[in-house]
Amino acid sequence: MNTRYRKLIIAGNWKMNKTPADARDFFKKLGPLGRKGGRFEAVLCVPAIDIPAAVSASKEMRYSIGAQNMHQAPSGAYTGEISADMLKNAGVKYVIIGHSERREYFGETDFTVSEKVKAALDAGLRPIMCVGESLQHRQDGLEKPHIAYQVAAGLSQVSEEQISRVVIAYEPIWAIGTGNTATAQDAQDICCHIRSILREKYGARKARAVSILYGGSMNPENAADLIAMEDIDGGLIGGASLTAEKFRKIIEEAAAVNS
Ligand code: PGA
């Protein structure tokens, strides 16, 4: 984390959990965010159906609300889908794009990821673009080229003006929901690698302004060590974001590292 140049972001990803009533209850338990300067942001990425409840329950509490997916087209005959404009209009600020579960179960490719990232930016949303290697890639020593490809492909339609609004989440697939967190040093190595790819494409000044998050079994016990790393600017948190107490603790750990 280096808040001289970029924002620290703690983002929860509820996945397919919680009803609108659960969402209201969660924010009541979570309570307001103690501090929110220009350099720290806490986000909850909730199921689409929970967005109105989350936006209204978190009002005056200084959290930002995110979505977990969107369609790349501005409107049209795409039954069951939601556009970036609809999310924006509902009070959403962030949207997760290309989570490994979307890639694995819903056929998302690096190409659709690049289309969605572009559509999100054009609509004024901040995409949280997910990348990450499988266990097989890591065992074969291919994690860096794999990540480099995903980053380059996902950002292929992102201009120099837009890059600072993109958030990248490094989520090794073998660490998601498994309790196997990457070591802080391993996560740092990949996040630093991602920043070097950004540097090559957009230059040093732009690259150092991009927040790069780590995701994969982050919890109140390991958050501080991960976030203390130079190139890890926060977390994308699944399981531990479902409990208000745990999510709040992670926010406190992050704020302590940041102070
Ligand atoms: P996890 O999920 O924290 O439960 O590992 C992270 C994610 O998938 O975003």
Structure described in brief:
With 259 residues, this protein is of the alpha/beta class. It has helices at 20-30, 51-57, 84-89, 100-105, 110-122, 135-139, 143-154, 184-202, 204-207, 223-227, 244-258, and strands spanning 8-13, 40-45, 64-67, 94-97, 126-131, 167-170, 212-215, 234-237.
What does this structure look like?
The chain is an alpha/beta fold and 259 residues long. The protein has a single domain (8-258), classed as Alpha-Beta Barrel (TIM Barrel). Helix content is 40%, strand content 15%. The protein contains 11 helices and 8 strands. The chain has helices at 20-30, 51-57, 84-89, 100-105, 110-122, 135-139, 143-154, 184-202, 204-207, 223-227, 244-258, and strands at residues 8-13, 40-45, 64-67, 94-97, 126-131, 167-170, 212-215, 234-237. An 8-stranded parallel β-barrel has the order 1-2-3-4-5-6-7-8, surrounded by 5 helices. Helix 1 runs parallel beside helix 2 (51-57) and helix 1 (20-30) crosses helix 11 (244-258). The protein is globular and about 45 Å long. The relative contact order is 0.16. The mean pLDDT is 96. The chain binds 2-phosphoglycolic acid.
Descriptive keywords:
alpha/beta; TIM Barrel; globular; binds 2-phosphoglycolic acid
